[in-house]
Amino acid sequence: MLMLGFAGFLGILKILLMVLAAFGLCDAAIRREDAFRAADKQNKAFWLIILALALVVSYLFSILSFLPIIGVIASIVYIVDVRPAVKQVSGGGGGGWGRRRGGSSSDGPYGPYNGGR
């Protein structure tokens, strides 16, 4: 009974790690190549290959083996370090859900707010 629960936990963990690698892969695929160079990170092809390998390895191998751990580390490095730097360089950094690119904090939905003047 305990082994069945542990196997279920490992299955859920495997799915979460695959989702992490897939998210990083999809995010790297939509980013511009020059943003990687401008952020002084490895190029886009490098990250696409690393994240694709992380996804495949996390699918094929058990969580308890060595290769999925390396894939998880690569995915976390991309999401925590590379993604914010590339996002900031390409102009997609910070802000809330509704904030437009290049807008001021006093901009409303239909243009700048001038205080009723």
Automatic annotation (TrEMBL):
Residues 87-117 are annotated as: Disordered. The chain crosses the membrane at residues 6-26, 47-80. Residues 103-117 have a biased composition (Low complexity). Keywords: Membrane, Transmembrane, Transmembrane helix. This is DUF2516 family protein. The lineage of its organism: Bacteria, Bacillati, Actinomycetota, Actinomycetes, Kitasatosporales.
